[in-house]
Amino acid sequence: MIYFDNSATTRTLPEAAERAAAAMTQDYFNPAATYGAAFTVEKKVNEARAFAASLIGANPNELIYTSGGTESNNAAVFGTLRSVHGKKRIVTTAIEHPSVFETVAAAAKLFDAEIVYAPLCPDGTVNIDRLSDVLTPDTSMVSIMHVNNELGSVNDLDRIAMKVRALSPGAVLHSDGVQAFMKVDTRKLPVDLYSVSAHKLHAPKGVGFLYVRNGVKFAGGQIGGGQERNLRSGTTNVPGIVGFDTALRAYHANESAWHLQMFRVKQRLYANLSALPDVLLNGPAIEQGAPHILNLSFMGVRGEVLMHALEKYGVIVSTGSACSAKKMGKNRILNAIGVTGARQESAIRFSFSPFNTEEEADVAAGVIEEQLRVLRRYRRR
Prior knowledge:
- Strands 2-8-7-6-5-3-4 form a seven-stranded mixed β-sheet, sandwiched between helices. The protein has a three-stranded antiparallel β-sheet with strand order 9-10-12. A two-stranded parallel ribbon has the order 1-11.
- The protein is about 40% helix and about 15% strand.
- The protein is α/β, with parallel strands linked by helices.
């Protein structure tokens, strides 16, 4: 199998799975308990938290462990708006992941808040020159993703933060970093809140974290036993956290080499496929996007048809976000950047891991070329 859908999820590293398994079968104690074995487990969780925090230039007490990106994004939106008194105004984008886009919509109804969408460039990044048009002194929250999950476009959080601080000084700035963390530079984040998910980084599913800058307005997420500084209650997911820690340490140790490997595979696949007729790039130029995401339209073939044809030959790709894959209708992200009609219908997302190879890119391109030749015979006239 050639797996090019790593933005949906990644294969857990064996060493991360082994450490998670040990936490379930040996260090299975609840770190909230008060006996010695529990203290030992709590220490491991705290060590993992400290290491993860160091990767974004944060203090350990600024990281709240969650069940993943969706919960982190939900907590960021609702936890922020619950802390705001009076009228609420949210600035976001039309190409956010559903866990932000739909959450903002639900929160706006609940809190009677105004939603304003920031202008976009054709490559899927925020138009920073026009961001001033939507930032006002009464803006409560700004939520702009770091890397788009379908296009790979990378937003300049430093420039965005400068605009927000100058024009909306009272706003809380959140960024969905699920596709960015450890894939682009996240060593010093200029935001107030940042969402991360473990299973995009070869760690177990069901764990992630939300960075909450000390001093920011934030009312927390789940209510219960008071875990995570009383900001996210629930029994600590020790297996997930320590498995995540192992994967993060592997990523950190190999960061430059792994980034380069993903980019080489992306570049090789694009070089192969762009040589074919009627293949169009959606999103940023190859060198400007994140190293692990490539979105192409294969004109004359519906994306879903091509995806299933490739699956028969062991090449796994997607037509967009896994969270929206079973929803019928137009692609909101492509629509927002002006990719519509037949070009939108023929779009395929490829997403890579450090364990993909250039040889796989060559093999996949060969399969795609053959399937395009077959499927384009049946194109509508």
